[in-house]
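BUG: 3D viewer hangs when loading the predicted structure for this chain

Environment: internal workstation, default settings.
Expected: structure renders.
Actual: progress bar stalls at 90%.

Input used:
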Amino acid sequence: MAASSSSSFSSFCCFCRAPLLNSTSPISFSLSFPASILSGSAAVSLHTTRSRPATRAKFETFQGEPPQDGDLQPSTDPSQSSSPLGTQQQAIQEEEEEDDSCLPSDLVGAVRQSGEASASFVASGGLRAIVELLIPQLQFLDDEGAQAELWELSRIFIETLMEETGCQRVKAIFPDAGAAALLKYRWGDAAFGFSSLSDRKPVEAEDELVVMVVPDYQMLEYVERIASNLSDDPPRPLIMWNPRLVSEDVGVGFNVRKLRRYFLSTFTVVYSMRPLPSGAVFRCYPGIWKVFYDDKDRPNRYLLAKEQRSRPDAEELEIIFGDVEEKSEKGPSIFGQAASIFSSLNRFMKVISK
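Structure tokens produced before the viewer hung:
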């Protein structure tokens, strides 16, 4: 697949510039949603703040407490160099020494980072990609506020992707016609096109890059058809953003294995962020998969447990967190609870796979 993607990319008509490969932005954003977003306003409020020191807490927007005031105080150690050059070199050294420096500090930062990773994948010749933000607040969309937040984050992703690739003809495909029409009305200034999975012709010949926003398992037939059409000459990149193609409602076992073997296996997960009770699983293309565990000495910070080229499954995570617990000086901890969770999940996956 990789070889065919690279050879066919020469016919891809998107004029891409080299993407930014920095995993984090020097500016952090706090995400807030005023009442206007629920009453039909088109925009979400993104307040820009000054960048924080390298010792800021990770995933503070997702879970855990914000950093303490003491974490933000400048050092008063007289042994540290007071010259601007010395201070800058020390800051760079501290950032390089941090295991979790690759992780975003908030949700908007993660979305922007995923857009940069996707752009890097497209620039390398990749044609099928998946971005997954496995965060609880984005998994349950029963209320209007959660849906509004998801749509606004998808716009940040698409606009970051357009900026990083330089593509001018990007088509965003939403789960249903109602959502597509509403967002097209609200986002009148959007530079990308709108369509839905059920449209008669969701992709036009002039579209250079396609993003499916939260494609649902109920529309799997349409998803596969669009993906197949995009593979024709000339092939065009397809990115599925937070897909929901596997559900307990459609059964497990054979159906899931068939879906993964014949369809999802043709995609590359270019960005994945999954906070866990005692750590996180993370991948940002072109980097490999990383498993982090909580730093017991610094709340809301992480230490690298393992790196590997393939996504760690439940059994591997059980082993990783089990090893971390054994190395810990403390007794039973949250690592043991995490290992137990993965052990139960692993047994369940083995049962349904038979």
